């Protein structure tokens, strides 16, 4: 039931119709940014594990075993690999993401942070806070970063 109760960020977005006052949004985004746990070193994990995580919808439902890693369900909202024919369109297409942006430290940090807590970048984003909510582990987030940025990943074909 705790997932049904809105936190302060969600409440601000709901009450403002996803258009909070600019200064309030900036302040809350800064708070969300401070809470992101960035590991040391490279933030690029194994893209093959990342693809499995992106495909998986497991986690946080009544029949999923407690304590097992969840999935990202990324294809529910995004286009990623050209081999996947079924994908959602709520979020932007991420095909060619790393090919277009590279994989430098700033890009790694942005992608990792966005997956960990998208509300740090856009307060009323529809993207779930996959790291902040505990849905994904830090390693799973790194593996998703690998899926998006690794040149060998099908996302970047």
Name a few traits of the molecule.
157 residues, mainly alpha, 6 helices, 38% helix, 0% strand
Write the layout of secondary structure elements.
Blueprint: H1 8-15, H2 22-34, H3 47-55, H4 97-101, H5 105-116, H6 138-149
Helix pairs in contact: 3-6, 5-6
Broad shape: globular
Low-pLDDT runs: none
Structural class by sheet pairing and helices: mainly alpha
Task: State mean pLDDT (0 to 100 scale).
Answer: 92
Give the SSE string. HHHHHH
Largest sheet: none
How much strand content do the residues show? Answer: under 5%
Helical coverage, percent range: 25-40%
Summarize the structure.
The chain is mainly α. 38% of the residues lie in helices and 0% in strands. It has helices at residues 8-15, 22-34, 47-55, 97-101, 105-116, 138-149.
What does this 3D model show about the protein?
- With 157 residues, the protein is mainly α.
- It has six helices and no strands.
- Helix 3 crosses helix 6.
- 34% of the residues are buried.
